[in-house]
Design brief:
single chain, alpha/beta, Rossmann fold, two-stranded antiparallel ribbon, 8 helices, 18% strand, globular
Length: 216
């Protein structure tokens, strides 16, 4: 974790935009929260923690191709226009730092328009979520991290968290597993990520590849 934090503070931008990508159940939220803590304690850097799950489309849009559709999961889950406008653009080098944490309420299935918050001028943006290296988002990240975890392992974690089947090949998991495989086919996120991490062991993540630019 210290290594990744050091890489982030070495990015020559006031507010680096960092993606923590990976499949459902990869441990993205846990990893991002730990990384935020290290950035604050080791480097005294403020962070803004956001999940792309706050930018879901409404259920009518998410399930317009069918509740079991993998392509619907891949194509229709998120409102990327709002995510770019409310999160990524404000943290760009010339951005306002006026951002919103969410555009959707899971409780009411309603679109939200909260008042913007203001980030510190040098706050690091840490976003966790699936599909973060889609073509719509790819060029707006300053660093991408992919947590590589087998579907067998992610299904077990999701079963504990959500009560879903622990077998990734169970028909009830098809929407999610095949949707992720479609992402892998179209975007090759493991190879595109700046940092690739084996996160099959939550307590001992291992860096498999680090292609962040070296300074100096």
């Amino acid at each position: 974790m210290n290594h990744v934090a050091d890489r982030i503070v070495g990015i020559p931008l006031p507010s680096p935009r960092v993606a923590i990508d990976g499949p459902d159940g990869a441990g993205k939220t846990h990893f991002a929260d730990q990384l935020a803590a290290v950035l604050q304690s080791r480097h005294r850097r403020a962070t803004v923690r956001i999940s792309v799950d706050g930018f879901h489309n409404t259920r009518a849009v998410r399930y317009q191709q069918g509740r079991d559709s993998p392509l619907g999961f891949w194509a229709d889950s998120y409102n990327y226009d709002r995510f770019r406008r409310d999160v990524l653009e404000p943290f760009s080098p010339k951005g306002s730092r006026h951002f919103r944490r969410a555009s959707y309420s899971h409780d009411t299935d309603e679109i939200l328009h909260p008042e913007p918050e203001i980030a510190e001028p040098t706050a690091v943006l840490l976003v966790d979520g699936i599909f973060l290296q889609r073509i719509e988002l790819r060029e707006q990240w300053d660093l991408t991290i992919f947590l590589n975890v087998t579907f067998n392992e992610t299904a077990k974690r999701m079963a504990l968290r959500d009560g879903t089947p622990s077998d990734p090949e169970d028909p009830r998991m098809r929407r999610y597993v095949e949707g992720q495989r479609e992402y892998f086919r179209q975007c090759d996120p493991q190879q595109r990520a700046d940092i690739l991490i084996d996160n099959n062991n939550l307590d001992h993540p291992a860096i498999l590849r680090d292609e962040t630019p070296q300074l100096g």
